[in-house]
Each structure stands twice: as structure tokens, then as C-alpha cells.
Amino acid sequence: MPIPMTVKGAEALREELQHRKFELRPQITQAIAEAREHGDLKENAEYHAAREQQSFNEGRVQDIESKLADAQIIDVTRITPTGKVVFGVTVTLIDAESGSEVRYQIVGEDESDLKAGKLSVMSPIARALIGKSEGDVVVVKTPKGELEYEIERVEHI
Q1: How far is CA 63 from the centre of its chain?
Q2: Within 13 Å of residue 38, how many CA atoms lie on the same side as its CB?
Q3: CA distance 157 to 75
Q4: How far apart are CA 148 and CA 137, in angstroms?
Q5: Sheet holding 118-120, edge to edge
Q6: Of 54, 47, 48, 45, which is closest to residue 21 (Cα–Cα)?
């Protein structure tokens, strides 16, 4: 199944993959070699910590490679703006209750960072917004109850 991600999200994953393969992997290998030189491996905490770090790193490398292989990279700047909310757009919402404005970019799961205004496409808010247009009022069901937003602006940036 394709994994949607933005161009920036794919670039970030590629950078992390490069870092893990060509910087972290040799460092961990060196740490394991140094720990082996300390003798008995059964009671060598440095060795076990380095092996655990190696295992985590290799697992993450496989995870990233798998995600990039299945990635459906979407460049929202190449999509004709229609005012509809689609993957990759930046949407400005007005909270119906408080009148406050919030702004989110709808991104892939790995890219999401609420503090940075990046909302996972799988989140309840994003799922409620997808397919809606500027001016529409959207009701989002959350654990704290229903939230109502008006879509003020949809941008392809």
C-alpha cells in the first residue's frame, strides 16, 4: 500500500537514512570493536549497549528503506489549486467557538509534528478536512467532544 508523503518529508527520510548508514553505522561498529577488546562479553555493559544500539539503528534503516520504497511522493505545488483540502495543502481554520485561527499542513504520518503545524493525514482533524472546500464548516469528533472549524484558506505551498 502506498505511503503518502510530501517532497520535504521524503528528503528528510533520505537524509536520516544517509546519516544512519554512513555515519552512525560505522560509529556503532567501532564502539562494538572497542568493547570487545575489554574482554569477557557476558559482563561487558559497553558491548551490550553498543549491540542494542546497532540493533535499533539497523531496524530503523530497514523501516526507512521500506517506507521510501512504498512512498507516494506528492508535490502539492504541482496540483492545480481548487480550494479543496487535499494531501499536502496548508489549511487555515477558524475555531467556531473561540474564533482563534490555526494553520496546519496535511502531511504523511512520519512527517507529522503538531508543534510545527504539520498534521498527519490519518488524524481525525485531517480526515474530517479532506475533500472539503474553503468556506465549509467541519465538525471534528475528538475524545474531548466535537470541535467545529470553518475552513478559511487552502494553500498549495
Answers
A1: 13
A2: 13
A3: 9
A4: 7
A5: 118-120, 101-107, 90-95, 145-155, 137-142
A6: 54
Number of Cβ within 10 Å of residue 126's Cβ equals 20
The domains found in the chain, sorted by start residue, are 3-74 (1.10.287.180), 76-155 (3.10.50.30)
Give the start-end residues of each E strand in 3-53.
3-6
Q: pLDDT by residue (tens digit) across 49-108?
A: 999 999 999 999 999 999 999 999 999 999 999 999 999 999 999 999 899 999 999 999
- 137 and 70 in contact (C-beta within 8 Å)? no
Q: How far is it, in rounded angstroms, from Cα 16 to Cα 8?
A: 12
Question: What CA–CA distance (Å, rounded) separates 132 from 83?
Answer: 8
Question: E strands within the chain?
Answer: 3-6, 71-74, 90-95, 101-107, 118-120, 137-142, 145-155
Query: pTM value?
Result: 0.83
**What is the torsional sign of CA 75, 77, 83, 88?**
positive
